[in-house]
């Protein structure tokens, strides 16, 4: 499924379209798949959702995970103290990345293409010709009344 999601994204499908396609084909979400093969995932409660209803956040996370190209990333999170259970995201320079530590699901070149494509699609206010939308800036939110 990971290879298919990456291929669909590179073929021009959007994240919502990929999620809708997987939902329509009744493919189990990752959490439900893990449960079906006997793997318990702590902290993931899925009793209230449909097993084949994919969300855009699941697809987005799959597209962003570097581990699929064979890397291991250590020290993604840390805690301020051993007494505090809350995890804090570590700075990127504090993470340790071990490349090609295990068999890759997708090629590194495919992962890099997806990351560059995802990086280019975040600015939606500027058109392909480089001009802003004609209606951009006309509406202004008012301040809330007290």
For the structure shown, list the relevant keywords.
two-stranded antiparallel sheet; 5 helices; mainly alpha; 2 domains; 33% helix; 146 residues; single chain
Question: Short summary of the structure?
Answer:
This protein has 146 residues and is mainly α. It has helices at residues 2-10, 15-24, 30-36, 56-64, 108-120, and strands at 72-74, 77-78, 88-89, 96-98.
Give structural notes:
- The protein is mainly alpha-helical and 146 residues long.
- It has two domains: 1-66 and 106-122, no CATH class; 71-104, no CATH class.
- Helix content is 33%, strand content 7%.
- It is built from five helices and four strands, in the order H-H-H-H-E-E-E-E-H.
- The strands form two sheets. Strands 1-4 form a two-stranded antiparallel sheet. A two-stranded antiparallel ribbon has the order 2-3.
- Helix 1 (2-10) crosses helix 5 and helix 2 packs across helix 4 (56-64).
- The longest helix is centred in the C-terminal third of the chain and has 13 residues, at 108-120.
- The protein is globular and about 50 Å long.
